[in-house]
Amino acid sequence: MHLLSLFIEPEQKFYGVASPQGLLSIASIIEKNGGRVTLLDFSAEPYNDQKILDIIDSIDVVGITTLTHSYPQVKHIVKLIKKYNSDIPVILGGPHCTLFSEKTLLETEADIIVLGDGEYIVESISDALKYGKPLSNIPGVVYREEDKIKLGGKPSYIEDLDSLPFPSYHLIRRYVYGREFDPSLKKVSLHLS
Fold this sequence. Notes:
By secondary structure, this protein is α/β, with parallel strands linked by helices. It has a single domain, classed as Response regulator (Rossmann fold, 3-Layer(aba) Sandwich), CATH 3.40.50. Helix content is 29%, strand content 17%. The chain has helices spanning 21-32, 49-55, 71-84, 95-99, 101-107, 121-131, and strands at residues 4-9, 36-41, 61-65, 90-93, 112-114, 141-145, 148-151. A hairpin with a 2-residue loop joins strand 6 and strand 7 (148-151). The protein is globular.
């Protein structure tokens, strides 16, 4: 059994400027291992609760990028998902979660926080969710267990970025970014590692 994943990029301050590179990179790992991913990029399309609810019944797990300025919307999205179906695991990652992991778990109904690079951690999380394995052996996760917040272990970081598969750009073909989105933009963002 392969998990069906929904990745959500919340609205960003600079609407439609750049694609969600972190989610696309993680999606490529999931797809490489036979999983399927749906991506909703609310930095490139107007946010709407119904867009999430329309596909949530066909999803096994939800992953959401969390930046500090999008944190209020992330809390809303997590609450929406959990109100609709409290059994769907919600995983949060991104800079905000790496810096404020325990606080984020306390303030949201999310189940798992990924610290640092999520590309290879996601494989272990998928196995744990599919086969009921403990999260305690997974480095780089913070999670709830019996009303306690626990750390799976110190996160590791990807040293060889060339080892990553090419990001799953096919997931964003329907979106327009950068100058094509807004011709008045003088610059287009460039993501470097």
